[in-house]
Amino acid sequence: MTRVDVALFQIGYGDDESLADRVGRVCEWIREVERPDLIVLPELWAHGGFASSSWTSTAELLDGATVAQLSSVARKMHTWIHAGSIIEKADEGSARGPEDRGLWNTSVLLSPEGHVHTTYRKIHRFGFGEGEPRLLEAGHELALTDLDWGTESTRAGLATCYDLRFPEMFRKLGERGAELVLLPAAWPMPRVEHWQLLGRARALENQCWMLQCNTAGTHSGLEMGGHSQIVAPTGEVIAELGCDEGVLTAQLDLDMVQRVRADFPVLDDRRL
Ligand SMILES: O=C(O)CCC(=O)C(=O)O
């Protein structure tokens, strides 16, 4: 039986903490918890989910300071760390994307050896013409990987925040074998019920685990919604946080995906 311990860090922040201070604080905080098998952090927690006016100046390379510090934590703890997302800037001389911006909202999964294992550039940019669609390139590729736990492994799909509103993306991840989806976010408080409802829907309709890690606090004039949640392949929320900063821990029975799919084989009845 594949049982794994996960910890989602619902990071709270305001406008008064520098990126470097926040990264240092979060690395310390992670080191204080008992070693889980997988840690998940939120979207753009270092750069600020809505701090778009500073994204160009705080953007980092994939091997920049934020990822390097978290890689060192992953290696020392020998655990998987989904580092949430960063504002990634294009390396000198490399492709800058079709809109020539050279910036992406990129999620980074680190292996227990501390290596960048998988990256995912957010496909659906949020902002309706402002923020992400004005400043960042869109990602164009789905990202899936096998999380190796030692003797067993689990197929995981990566998605970020606003992607949650696009069910066809999660169906594609499911078709490519995803049993679990890692979803970091900076989802605002006024629409937190959408976050909860859509997360449950994506889990239920694809019969997969959803690990949704949101942000807390108020920055750039927006209150973040918190309410990080872990949803089972039945659509049941097995663990959730409130509005404040905190760690959400749970033990997942990953074999449940196959049991739920065998007991109620709704995915076999799709008309393609
Ligand atoms: O869809 C929403 O309501 C929030 C999405 C969002 O904040 C984001 O993708 O950064």
UniProtKB/TrEMBL annotation:
Matching InterPro entries: C-N_Hydrolase (IPR003010), C-N_Hydrolase_sf (IPR036526), UPF0012_CS (IPR001110)
Protein name from the UniProt record: Carbon-nitrogen family hydrolase
Occurrences of domain CN hydrolase (ranges): 4-254
CDD domains: nitrilase_5
Pfam families: CN_hydrolase (PF00795)
Keywords: Hydrolase
UniProt-listed Gene3D superfamilies: Carbon-nitrogen hydrolase
Organism: Leekyejoonella antrihumi
GO MF entry, a single one: hydrolase activity
Keyword Hydrolase assigned: yes
Family: Belongs to the carbon-nitrogen hydrolase superfamily. NIT1/NIT2 family.
Recorded superkingdom: Bacteria
Lineage: Bacteria, Bacillati, Actinomycetota, Actinomycetes, Micrococcales
